[in-house]
């Protein structure tokens, strides 16, 4: 077997549903990673909002090392201490009474949507089964979750699609009021539409959704896969809206890079998933839960939450200045350290060009569609690393200009 691999190896042995960059990272530390030529890059992408504590954080390394010498896997025929401790902590820190563990955000949303359907069907004799979602939403890549998501490009070619899903304009209170009825079992929304352009929900919209769900006895589901785990500046973004959901999904930053997802629910909502109605072989894995438990304790520290706010302001100001200097993008929007900079009219469709130019200068960022740059750095990124990343982005934009 050959031990030498290159980017071309990907094209030879991997299914072609991805098109990764030419660079192959080999190690990371904090907010930087290094390629095979030992060149360093400032990580403003965070593994798509996953690496909330950066790379190789000591608390995560210690938790993984200690648990790896105890217990790796059992399945849910038995429970385990790390899973119970993590669930207990999540319920202490949030609205939730119950937790279901899985392996990803898509799985967490799949569980939430299945819960919603069972909740509606068992309470109405099968008449209450409509799920309301919003255009440009993103909820995962399983067949059910791409259908609830509001982006047709992810469902094309996979027909026939599951029914009973209605999409509405985001932040449109009137449209939501018109669509609500007693046939609706759930309304699902992202506090910030991440893949849809880093667009925050308005306070009016979120509060209207809560009131309408109460009126029609529907569940309000918050997809906080991307906004959760302190990325918004609070542990979960719902805490800034003055509204509590019935169900919340979380993943990405929950494990800080170790795969884990969770669905949080109130007591009343959780009862819909009775014994045997849903499951996951790896869900609640001791290794994943031990790491996530260590991550969670770091995320609730006041100094980390203060750093999110400070670095968010620094990033906003830096991006605004770069945008004004070169005219490629406008002032950023978003919450905490999930920010999006919309491209100006003359640069529409060229977000990937700016990302590629940034990579050449040693800074790695994301897109949120072809017209928005997306930034999701580690929540503990230092002021110095933030400044250096912005300087590298400035050079990238200057080169493009």
Describe the fold and architecture:
By secondary structure, the protein is α/β, with parallel strands linked by helices. It has two domains: 7-56 and 302-400, Aspartate Aminotransferase, domain 1 (Alpha-Beta Complex), CATH 3.90.1150.10; 71-299, Type I PLP-dependent aspartate aminotransferase-like (Major domain) (Aspartate Aminotransferase, domain 2, 3-Layer(aba) Sandwich), CATH 3.40.640. Helix content is 38%, strand content 17%. It has 13 helices and 17 strands. It has helices at residues 7-13, 46-49, 58-68, 81-93, 105-124, 143-148, 173-179, 203-216, 267-270, 286-299, 302-326, 351-361, 383-400, and strands at 25-29, 32-35, 40-43, 98-102, 130-134, 165-168, 184-189, 192-193, 199-200, 219-223, 247-250, 261-265, 333-335, 338-342, 363-364, 366-367, 372-375. Strands 4-12-11-10-7-5-6 form a seven-stranded mixed β-sheet, with helices on both faces. A four-stranded mixed β-sheet has the order 1-2-3-15. The longest helix is centred in the last third of the chain and has 25 residues, at 302-326. The model has no long low-confidence stretch (mean pLDDT 96).
Name of the level-1 CATH class of the largest domain:
Alpha Beta
Q: What is the typical, i.e. mean, pLDDT?
A: 96
The largest sheet is:
7 strands, mixed
SSE series: HEEEHHHEHEHEHEEEHEEEHHHEEHEEEH
Q: In which order are the strands of the major sheet placed?
A: 4-12-11-10-7-5-6
Query: What is the CATH architecture assignment of the largest domain?
Result: 3-Layer(aba) Sandwich
Supply the number of helical segments. 13
